[in-house]
Amino acid sequence: MRTYSDQYSKRLIMRPTVEEVSKVFSSYEPMLLSIWQYIITTFAEEPDYPFFNTKIDTISGENLHHFVGEIDLFGKETIYGWIQGRGLESIAKHYLWVSKVKILDEAEKKYFRDYSLSLLREVSYKLNSFRKKNNSRLFFWMDQSGNAFRLNENNKKEILSLNPDESGYSDLFSVKGLIISSFLLKDEELESEAKIYYDSIIDCLKNDRFQTDQQQFDPKNNVIFDSNKISYGPKMIGLGICTLFYELYREKKYVDDGFFLIHEILSKFANYDNKFPSFHKYDIPEFVDHEGKPFSENGQVLSYPGHAIELCGFIGDFFHTIERGNIVSKDQKKYINWVYSILPDFFTHNFRLGIKPGYGIYKSVSLETCNAMNSDMPWWALPETLKAAAHIYTIAPEKQKTEILSIIAEASNTFLSRYINPGVHCMAYQTLDESGNPIRAIPATPDADVGYHTGLSIINFMNVWAEVNGQDLESIT
Questions:
Q1: Could you tell me the sign of the dihedral formed by the alpha carbons of 435, 438, 440, 443, in that order?
Q2: Which of 27, 157, 271, 471 stands the most exposed, by the fewest C-beta atoms within 10 Å?
Q3: Which helix (H) or strand (E) holds 326?
Q4: CA dihedral (260, 180, 81, 130) positive or negative
Q5: Would you call 31 exposed, middle or buried from its count of C-beta atoms within 10 A (0-12, 13-18, 19+)?
Q6: How far apart are CA 20 and CA 465, in angstroms?
């Protein structure tokens, strides 16, 4: 089997046109195949380790180890709920994408499909067993026996009993991975359990019983749970859950749940209507307090431009998916049209707020000063930009299409020029500093991306762009 990183070459978009954007697929296809090949090969080489393992330094290619107290948080003994859930969704959607990849012959496609199904079967069953062990919940840190844990103030391992009436990000990522795995594996028991999991998670999102499970690695990225601040992030990921469940089952409840989540986010966070008069139109604070006011940290209200861009991609993907199903009511169609009327300006505003041209997108920006508060630039915001921009292009007025094309070119050129490391399976450096140098700051987990932000965003981008070029956009079913 050939090594797909050898097939990779950087192609820049010199003239931002629909046709020139399509040509960049010649860079993205071998890049995604290289990462996919690394994931399934690593899994096959470790038959006694039924988990995704991308604990690799994307700068040097070395395997990671770093003990905190007696726990190797960077090594194989620590299982990250985020990575296992994201990985399942990623590999499942790569499995569905492979039929479209023109640089593969049928034997190569079979190789990817066969190894991926084996991986999905083992990881989904193990992850679901962990969920059952933890009161139908999953957590950011788990050991190989499935025990959810955190570290106390003395860096000692503290086993947790998870509250079954709450949800965290590991639950949100994992329900997507479990449901699409059950679909491909034709496992009715897993499917039934994932649907119950969905109902529990959506109920938590609707009734504000979400609590982040993320644990902090980067001192500049404060992720510690604070009951005084409310993020739109959980409902944004919830929207992705609704999109996937609708695409699989075509049931109206998933559509209605998605509309509820979009309305909650836009009405309470997005400044399209001057609800926050001291800020610019289309600003979106990352957090609000329980009175609905922007949450101030150290005298600054923060926006995470990458999350605002990601939100545009989730909204665009949801609407694009359900509109093809002829299931929306007249009132819902009216709401879609209204969202479409503000989404292009919301997207371009937040891209310009966060971008350092030629380098990347700042982690956080002050809405008071419009200056970067955390000037690190994580990789994931650029592929999310490509996904969002493709959807925005399909609904933007003609006068804005040129600007959207320019954003696609800027994001793609920066991502391929600055972030991709061909020497480490074409993975992206997790973070660049303000000068554009790769650094070892961890945005979320020590595991490198399992094809989630990178693979799923770019596959979505390429699928939508194929439709822009007049080709049919295939659905899962």
A1: positive
A2: 471
A3: none
A4: positive
A5: buried
A6: 11
Nearest to 221 by CA among 101, 24, 372, 363: 363
**pLDDT-based confidence at residue 336 (cuts at 50, 70, 90):** very high
Q: For 311-327, give one letter per residue: b (16+ CB within 10 A) or e.
A: bbbbbbbbbbbbeeeee
Alpha carbons 300 and 337: distance in angstroms, whole number: 34
Contact yes or no for 430/443 (Cβ under 8 A): yes
What region does 274 belong to: left with phi over 0, alpha with psi -120 to 50, or beta? left
Task: Tell me the CB-side half-sphere exposure of residue 57, using CA atoms within 13 A.
Answer: 12
Q: What is the pTM of this model?
A: 0.96
Please name every residue paired with 67 in a beta bridge, in sequence order, or none if there are none: 72
Tell me whether strands 427-428 and 230-231 are parallel, antiparallel or unpaired: unpaired
- 58 three-state secondary structure: coil
Kindly tell me if the per-residue pLDDT of 281 is higher than 70. Answer: yes
Handedness of CA 234, 240, 244, 246 (dihedral sign): positive
Please provide residue 298's backbone torsions phi and psi, each rounded to the nearest 5 degrees.
Answer: 55, 40
Segments in 324-380 forming alpha helices (H)? 330-354
Longest pairwise C-alpha distance within the chain: 59
Question: What DSSP character marks residue 448?
Answer: P
Length reported for the chain: 477
Structure tokens, 34: 């290289």
Residue 374, strand partner residues? 364
Tokens of 194: 């994932």
Give the percent of the chain with pLDDT over 70: 99
Q: Distances in Å between the alpha carbon of 350 and those of 17, 366, 399, 412, 454?
A: 22, 12, 19, 17, 20
pLDDT in tens, 44-98: 999 999 999 999 999 999 998 877 778 899 999 999 999 999 999 999 999 999 9
